[in-house]
Amino acid sequence: MTIKYLKRFSIFFLISILVSSNVLANEQMITLSPPESLPLLFFNDGEKAIKVDQFLGQYILINFWATWCVPCVTEMPALNNLAKKLRKKGLTVITVSQDITGPSVVEPFLEPMMLKNILVWYDNKNKSFRQLGLRGLPTTILVNPKGLVIAKLEGAAEWNEGLLLEQIERIIGDN
Prior knowledge:
Elements: H1 3-25, E1 30-37, E2 42-44, E3 49-51, E4 59-65, H2 70-86, E5 91-97, H3 103-110, E6 119-122, H4 127-131, E7 139-143, E8 148-154, H5 162-173
């Protein structure tokens, strides 16, 4: 490659990053009207089976992701910050790995990120992902205290700032 092409590529790459980060900051969840019932979902916390309905009575943000999904991994720190900001307002953030290998790969992968405010669960054989009719990663759903899916976002987002944070705070505050 010549220097001329390298410069063009570098400029294009920088513009792409700036545009995509601005888009992420202005992203909002799609609100579902009417809300959808959350099916009976089973996950694994690395040791035992867990039913998501143990969190009924509070808001739950469930993020489906995988270690091989770059946008998924990129948004993890923002999800962690969101969980920290809104924990006292009644929001629990659960990340559900779609990695077939489970904790043996995911736990060492996440360790350097020091994500202390989110729960990391595993979706055995991607069953819950399919039950919810989700299409791609990352996908995030917001569940209200009654167990209804009230909002959804397909794709990565900047969860701890901008319009998306305002939207989630407004939804939680309306309860």
